């Protein structure tokens, strides 16, 4: 770009806005003088050097600016690797860069054009596989980093197909390779959902829960090794390292705390600037159940309570979103819904054996069970204790009574809670486990119950919020049998069936509801008028522990690195 010429039209003399008049006049002090004096010669020489100096300085500034812009374009690496490119808009006369910073028209999110933290990419994906006791599920999360805490934009969910005996990793037992291949359906969904340019920097982790815990160390280790081998060799996603528990049987306390993070993150109670009261979570799985809440001891001095949460395995210190939380948590292994069914059936068998010690043919006849709906029956496998004559795993037929007796079923459900077990650290909930009183330390805050709590109540028309008394009334209707089911007419169940068809096909629905009521009211000692909230999703996102476990994967040092594509 050339500088403007001087006003007199002399193209040999560039215009200088700071020039004094006649400094470079061709006329000397005398008329018609053409030879410069010594002073004029020195002035001319000085001016030449000054001009050159200014040009050098101006050029240096331009070079520095270009160097800084070049550094910013290549000095940071963003995800995805879409290529750092400069776009110059003559109309806007601005430079924009895609990578970590985007033009508004090119941004992959509508929320912002650059990340809050320049060291992070604007968009990140994380994959979490929940290897549960009844089946495996994948959650594919998409986040933006527009704010100080990652914001969830989208979630894709897929689960393994149902099959006889379950479709979880534990159902494959000695077939470790078959267990690993069962996840292909889930990973294929990830391949379709995550754009190619993000795949190499989208971490995946597999966390198994209670089902694999009870399989035994040797068998479960072989399955986990096979899963790791398949994910590392067949798919482009970086697998979280062994040291950071990339493929692992998750600890029960982590499962509950991750679910607590998920719920409160989606509710906006954590991760933001406001210090709002948090919600409690009660998660009911197939093999275990978790409770997590943040107790308060405001009236400890007057009420005779401790001033803070006692130390122990139940105490969980958590840092999240700039806040510190002291949580109570416990995972009750063996108190998931499927485990509770087995325990109740076992208790029925024990009671029958005590009343028929001298008889041997009773086991081949239908066994009355108040937890089976009237007029229905269910064949179950029961493991008999050594003192029983058969002494082995046998199939027996459980038969519902002529008339519903929900109170008797509730007594059986309360019986497996072992409320009278020794309590080494008072107060205790059930089975000798310490737990601060919910009535005293968590009386008014929200309580969310989900997983099987939701699956067994929502199809029956229960609202998003109800009291334990209303759950008690619902249980009485279900346990009353078909003659009490008229209020469920017209409700839609699962797999295209009506709720009435579902109730007939699930004879243990009465058992399930009684166990839930017993667990919440007798086990956790929640008042009968306490309100709970059921949910499967919040703001369109699945509840459970998976999101809470995925959020840490977005941070540095979480056990994975972007994979480099090998050149073939």
How would you describe this protein?
The chain is of the alpha/beta class and 568 residues long. Helices cover 31% and strands 18% of the residues. A seven-stranded mixed beta sheet has the order 10-11-9-8-15-17-16. Strands 5-4-3-6-7 form a five-stranded mixed beta sheet. Strands 12-14-13 form a three-stranded mixed beta sheet, covered by helices on one side. The radius of gyration is 35 Å and the shape is globular. The two termini are 48 Å apart. 37% of the residues are buried.
Short description:
The chain is an alpha/beta fold and 568 residues long.
Jot down its keywords.
alpha/beta, Nucleotidyltransferase, domain 5, 5-stranded mixed beta sheet, disordered N terminus
Derived structural class: alpha/beta
Strand order of the largest sheet: 10-11-9-8-15-17-16
Task: Tell me the radius of gyration.
Answer: 35 Å
- The number of helices is 16
Shape: globular
Q: Span between N and C termini?
A: 48 Å
Task: Itemize the secondary structure elements and their pairings.
Layout: H1 38-74, E1 85-89, E2 94-98, E3 123-131, E4 136-144, E5 151-159, H2 176-181, H3 184-193, H4 196-199, E6 204-208, H5 210-213, H6 217-234, E7 247-249, H7 252-267, E8 280-284, E9 288-293, H8 300-303, E10 315-320, E11 323-333, H9 337-355, E12 367-368, E13 377-383, E14 393-399, H10 406-415, H11 438-441, E15 447-451, H12 452-457, E16 465-467, H13 468-479, H14 499-505, H15 509-523, E17 531-534, E18 537-538, E19 541-542, H16 546-550
Parallel strand pairs: 3-6, 6-7, 8-15, 12-14, 15-17
Antiparallel strand pairs: 1-2, 3-4, 4-5, 8-9, 9-11, 10-11, 13-14, 16-17, 18-19
Helix pairs in contact: 9-15, 10-15, 13-15
